[in-house]
Amino acid sequence: MLNMADALSALQQLATSPVAATLSEAFAEAGHELALVGGPVRDAMLGRPVNDLDFTTSADPDEILRIVKPHSSAQWDVGREFGTIAAKVGDETVEITTYRADSYDADSRKPEVVFGDNIEGDLRRRDFTVNAMALLLPEIKLVDPFGGVEDLLAGVLRTPGTPEQSFSDDPLRMMRAARFASQLSFAVADDVRDAMEHMSQRLEIISMERIREELSKLLCTDNPRPGMTLLVDSGLMELFLPEVPALKLTQDDHKRHKDVYEHSLTVVDQAIDLEHERFPDAEPDLVLRLAALLHDIGKPPTRRFEGGGVVTFHHHDVVGSKMAKKRLRELRYDNDTIKAVARLVELHLRFFGYSDAPWSDSAVRRYVRDAGPYLEQLHILVRADVTTRNVRKADRLAFAYDDLEERIRVLSEEEELQAVRPDLNGEQIMELLEIAPGPIVGKAYKFLLELRLDEGPLGEEEATRRLKEWYATLDA
């Protein structure tokens, strides 16, 4: 709940911080208005950390540069055509933007940039009322023409004008509504939700890169579920990640198996909890969260109804991995992210069955080798994938995975399991067998690796003997 006394105190602190005080004095001496705007004002009032300082001003970009140069160690022309100049003032990087009064083409999200002459006009073009507040400096006067404070108090997201006009101007704001619903734990006003539903197709004019960025920001909040649910219910998710709403199709009328859509959201929730528990000071793990969301997307295309009403999803892990790779490419994720998510999806079922028949040391080594650099993420994903309400089953699986992790730890200490390699490298193989580079070297390496996984470290002498025995069978 927003406490107004605390909020006003936080604004006072923000306005009198060294950077804000330095800039406000400089712009006032130059005869220009300056105000903190948007996220910093909102977050200060909510008692959230303020990570970036965004300012708006009556000065044009050339004047901004002239004013900030004597007070900054560096300046960046990050978007002069949009009126934005960045600068390093003290230890802070700030962005200062000329008042805007943009107009939009109905077929494009790119505005026709028009500089404004007053702060109220600038605030009118912003996405939500809670982001359409400014703190004029140095007088420390809150400018709130659209009821942002009331909406902060109510915990609700509304647009300064009609949501239809706002989303028509910039359809990406519909995804921002979902992100803020999760990030701020705010409800979305009914008219905003309705506009998202009937204007969802408008998102098609937005580039995949921009959509990917918003999706990633949403997943990296502490509680993505409300935003994800809003994207699915509004139809927006169907346009860029249809595999997630398709999970609802796996819940048949007779409810013969769990709701895979709700299960997947719960896996995301549990993965985040485990992430915080195991790595409390780490940045949000986007790869883990994408894998948690997508781990079962192979179920709809592999669903089969067997005798007695049994539902199966054979090979949904492999199918889902391929689907995840394809979709993440279309969303323009980088290759490292795509590779990691696809691998985690592919491996997420490997553990199940361990509790019924504990693995040999060889199987444990293979599990670690196949997970490679994603082992810690796989640990979390597999544990998060247990959403059964059967307490006895959940306890049994948790105990089994505890046992597996302990065996991995012990084996790792004994034989540096994370870097499982044959006892002989490629050059040694060629020298011992007196052969040139070619397919035989690769086969020999694979043979030695299989020995290493099955039997553990052999040592060079024993590995050499076994390699020569193997090679002799090829000649025969």
TrEMBL record:
<dbReference type="InterPro" id="IPR032828">
    <property type="entry name" value="PolyA_RNA-bd"/>
</dbReference>
<keyword id="KW-0694">RNA-binding</keyword>
<dbReference type="Pfam" id="PF12627">
    <property type="entry name" value="PolyA_pol_RNAbd"/>
</dbReference>
<dbReference type="GO" id="GO:0008033">
    <property type="term" value="P:tRNA processing"/>
</dbReference>
<dbReference type="InterPro" id="IPR002646">
    <property type="entry name" value="PolA_pol_head_dom"/>
</dbReference>
<keyword id="KW-0819">tRNA processing</keyword>
<feature type="domain" description="HD">
    <location>
        <begin position="260"/>
        <end position="400"/>
    </location>
</feature>
<dbReference type="InterPro" id="IPR003607">
    <property type="entry name" value="HD/PDEase_dom"/>
</dbReference>
<dbReference type="InterPro" id="IPR043519">
    <property type="entry name" value="NT_sf"/>
</dbReference>
<dbReference type="GO" id="GO:0005524">
    <property type="term" value="F:ATP binding"/>
</dbReference>
<dbReference type="Pfam" id="PF01743">
    <property type="entry name" value="PolyA_pol"/>
</dbReference>
<keyword id="KW-0692">RNA repair</keyword>
<dbReference type="GO" id="GO:0003723">
    <property type="term" value="F:RNA binding"/>
</dbReference>
<keyword id="KW-0808">Transferase</keyword>
<keyword id="KW-0479">Metal-binding</keyword>
<dbReference type="InterPro" id="IPR006674">
    <property type="entry name" value="HD_domain"/>
</dbReference>
<protein>
    <submittedName>
        <fullName>Poly(A) polymerase</fullName>
        <ecNumber>2.7.7.19</ecNumber>
    </submittedName>
</protein>
<keyword id="KW-0548">Nucleotidyltransferase</keyword>
<keyword id="KW-0460">Magnesium</keyword>
<keyword id="KW-0547">Nucleotide-binding</keyword>
<dbReference type="GO" id="GO:0046872">
    <property type="term" value="F:metal ion binding"/>
</dbReference>
<keyword id="KW-0067">ATP-binding</keyword>
<dbReference type="InterPro" id="IPR050124">
    <property type="entry name" value="tRNA_CCA-adding_enzyme"/>
</dbReference>
<dbReference type="InterPro" id="IPR014065">
    <property type="entry name" value="tRNA_adenylyltransferase"/>
</dbReference>
<dbReference type="GO" id="GO:0042245">
    <property type="term" value="P:RNA repair"/>
</dbReference>
<dbReference type="InterPro" id="IPR006675">
    <property type="entry name" value="HDIG_dom"/>
</dbReference>
<dbReference type="GO" id="GO:1990817">
    <property type="term" value="F:poly(A) RNA polymerase activity"/>
</dbReference>
<dbReference type="Pfam" id="PF01966">
    <property type="entry name" value="HD"/>
</dbReference>
